[in-house]
């Protein structure tokens, strides 16, 4: 197992984290939302992010197509893609706790025939070169300490003409790592990537049509909503999560709000394609 994977797995397999994501985020799509209105439920805005990401993959989705979802969490993205487009989805995720819940929900919704849930790491994808028509990931790379390796793996398994799309929380260019270290401590990493890092990596991997749909303006609203929901539900949360974790959330979430307001964070959808003549990945830039 990649050296950082065990720490990530432990993070997602605690009852505290599971209960927080279920109660405040809705337990389906656990990532930054795209909000249409004030006070919109986090779950609705997070589902809109999945819909926008899917638009970048749409030409490579449909019956008979294969999609790989890296860091698939509770499976919201995998179920959306399989249910809407009829494609087959492999959902690769470190946490067996999340994966068990993912499989159970798939079966309840009649999607277990289209979605295969696999416990594993996006640092070492257990598939051959060029096996997938599309690869996606939603806010999983922020937990990685080797994002270049994860992107190399994503590009390697893309078929010629295949599409890649992912979201991630990033640091604004030039933001000192020390300025964000207290913010990202809850994620178990020392630093975030930047948009320029991802653009250089994707280009260095030989991918075409590299683009970034910058939605950084959503960050303040998203973290304000998470903070509001956590505060509003803290009495219920006290029965579900430890006092220590609840206090950590109430201290940490406002740090994200402040960092977003100060312009120190970036977020959006990166997208790229593998050229029709290429299989596997080039050596990434460093």
Describe the structure.
This protein is α/β, with parallel strands linked by helices. It has eleven helices and seven strands. It has helices spanning 5-12, 15-25, 42-55, 76-85, 96-108, 147-156, 177-184, 195-204, 218-232, 234-238, 243-261; strands at 66-70, 88-93, 115-119, 132-138, 158-171, 208-214, 265-273. It has a seven-stranded mixed β-sheet with strand order 3-2-1-4-5-7-6, with helices on both faces. Helix 6 (147-156) links the parallel strand 4 and strand 5 (158-171). Helix 3 (42-55) packs across helix 4 (76-85) and helix 7 (177-184) packs antiparallel against helix 11. The longest helix has 19 residues, at 243-261.
Q: What is the subunit organization of this protein?
A: single chain
Cα-based radius of gyration, to the nearest Å: 18 Å
Task: Specify the biggest β-sheet.
Answer: 7 strands, mixed
Total E-strand runs: 7
Number of helices: 11
Return residue spans where pLDDT drops below 50 for at least 5 consecutive residues. 9-13, 281-286
Helix content: 40-55%
Shape: globular
**Average residue pLDDT:** 89
Structural class: alpha/beta
Blueprint (SSEs and pairs):
Elements: H1 5-12, H2 15-25, H3 42-55, E1 66-70, H4 76-85, E2 88-93, H5 96-108, E3 115-119, E4 132-138, H6 147-156, E5 158-171, H7 177-184, H8 195-204, E6 208-214, H9 218-232, H10 234-238, H11 243-261, E7 265-273
Parallel strand pairs: 1-2, 1-4, 2-3, 4-5
Antiparallel strand pairs: 5-7, 6-7
């Amino acid at each position: 197992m990649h050296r950082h994977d065990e720490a990530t797995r432990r993070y997602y397999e605690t009852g505290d984290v599971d209960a927080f994501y279920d109660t405040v985020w809705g337990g389906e799509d656990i990532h930054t939302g795209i909000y249409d209105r004030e006070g919109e439920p986090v779950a609705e805005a997070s589902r809109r992010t999945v819909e926008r990401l899917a638009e970048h993959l749409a030409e490579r989705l449909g019956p008979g197509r294969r999609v790989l979802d890296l860091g698939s969490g509770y499976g919201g993205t995998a179920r959306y893609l399989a249910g809407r487009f009829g494609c087959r989805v492999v959902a690769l995720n470190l946490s067996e706790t999340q994966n068990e819940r993912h499989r159970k929900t798939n079966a309840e919704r009649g999607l277990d025939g289209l979605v295969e849930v696999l416990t594993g790491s996006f640092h070492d994808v257990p598939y051959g070169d060029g096996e997938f028509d599309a690869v996606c990931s939603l806010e999983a790379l922020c937990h990685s300490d080797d994002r270049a390796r994860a992107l190399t793996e994503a590009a390697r398994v893309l078929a010629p003409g295949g599409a890649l799309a992912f979201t991630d929380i990033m640091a604004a260019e030039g933001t000192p790592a020390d300025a964000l270290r207290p913010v990202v401590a809850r994620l178990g990493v020392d630093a975030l990537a930047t948009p320029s890092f991802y653009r250089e990596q994707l280009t260095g991997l030989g991918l075409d049509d590299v683009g970034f749909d910058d939605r950084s303006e959503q960050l303040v609203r998203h973290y304000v909503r998470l903070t509001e929901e956590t505060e509003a539900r803290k009495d219920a949360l006290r029965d579900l999560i430890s006092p220590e974790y609840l206090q950590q959330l109430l201290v940490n979430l406002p740090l994200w709000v402040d960092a977003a307001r100060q312009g120190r964070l970036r977020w959006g959808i990166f997208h790229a394609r593998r050229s029709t003549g290429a299989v596997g990945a080039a050596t990434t830039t460093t």
